[in-house]
Amino acid sequence: MTVTLSPELEALIRRKVETGEYQSADQIIAEALQLLDERDRLLRLQTAIAVGDEQLARGEGIPLTPALLAKIKSDARAMLRQGKAPKPDVRP
Q: Which of 17, 28, 47, 58 is deepest in the core (most CB within 10 A)?
């Protein structure tokens, strides 16, 4: 894969490596992509929370009972046994 960077970004990467903050440009790019992924996940979670808040305001909440929690866990185990991955935002 070839990536074209602006001169400013190239200079930034060079400085980060020269100051010893990072060992290589690859390390910088990997961390940048990880942070981008985390930011995207945070935005998805914030959106889901907003939707949930709206649902609660309309009285559409579902009480978290021991039975519901057991069902959620059971469903998750069944998905794993079937080789299905959980949604990217459903993880510890």
A: 28
